[in-house]
Amino acid sequence: MRFINLGSRQDASHYVAIEMFKEIHYNKCTLLGLATGGTMKDVYLKLVELLQVNHTDISCLETFNLDEYFMLDKNDPNSYMTYMKQHLFDKIGMKESQFHLPDNDEIDVEEDNEAYDQAIREKGPLHIQLLGIGENGHIGFNEPGTPFNSKTRLVDLTETTIAANSRYFEDEEEVPTKAISMGIDTILSSERIILLALGEKKAEIMAKLYSMKAPDELIPASSLLTHKNVEIVMDNATARLI
Ligand code: GLP
């Protein structure tokens, strides 16, 4: 696991965008695992610019997102589908058949989750899995205590995650308490993993992760210690306690 402090928020975001761009540009049929959250906005902004400036052929690109809120309408302004369309899919003209987010309705939940993992297994491995991190060390929506062999499934969000996510919702009552998340085992099946952490609020969890010698299920991001190709990209604010 390599920890890389790139100084500014912009340089860290651009590094990640460039790595993803290179994969898409030079490996025509790229499979990407995508993440949402405030952290990723500048990554997608730069990635879109690079793909457009270089006239990259994206017709064979296919993506799988990490998570989606349970039972939130796909067109809700806070759904991860809306986020992805706004920041990436619509901007580069991806077709519906090219992007996948976990099915988040209440019908056939287990079957749909198994099908999501199976699709990743059959098409995969994902060339790059992009990750953010929660203040409690969650990746995707795999909260502390999640077994490292977990697959895509319905999860209950913790109080701290619900509180952190509430900043995006107008009314606290509207903040979803459940989500469908790609499992840790599914994440670890990717060829390469890039975790981006930006800002002061991620400094404590990053210092903790940096000090860990062995994985611990209470810190989901520590599962990455078992993977051989992981970069943890930070800005100065996140790296300040390291
Ligand atoms: C949510 C997402 C995570 C993301 C985290 C951090 O919990 N499910 O995938 O990493 O938020 O989000 P932000 O980048 O807004 O801090």
UniProtKB/TrEMBL annotation:
<dbReference type="GO" id="GO:0005975">
    <property type="term" value="P:carbohydrate metabolic process"/>
</dbReference>
<keyword id="KW-0119">Carbohydrate metabolism</keyword>
<dbReference type="GO" id="GO:0004342">
    <property type="term" value="F:glucosamine-6-phosphate deaminase activity"/>
</dbReference>
<protein>
    <submittedName>
        <fullName>Glucosamine-6-phosphate deaminase</fullName>
    </submittedName>
</protein>
<dbReference type="InterPro" id="IPR037171">
    <property type="entry name" value="NagB/RpiA_transferase-like"/>
</dbReference>
<dbReference type="GO" id="GO:0006044">
    <property type="term" value="P:N-acetylglucosamine metabolic process"/>
</dbReference>
<dbReference type="InterPro" id="IPR052960">
    <property type="entry name" value="GlcN6P_deaminase-like"/>
</dbReference>
<dbReference type="InterPro" id="IPR018321">
    <property type="entry name" value="Glucosamine6P_isomerase_CS"/>
</dbReference>
<dbReference type="InterPro" id="IPR004547">
    <property type="entry name" value="Glucosamine6P_isomerase"/>
</dbReference>
<dbReference type="InterPro" id="IPR006148">
    <property type="entry name" value="Glc/Gal-6P_isomerase"/>
</dbReference>
<feature type="domain" description="Glucosamine/galactosamine-6-phosphate isomerase">
    <location>
        <begin position="14"/>
        <end position="225"/>
    </location>
</feature>
<dbReference type="Pfam" id="PF01182">
    <property type="entry name" value="Glucosamine_iso"/>
</dbReference>
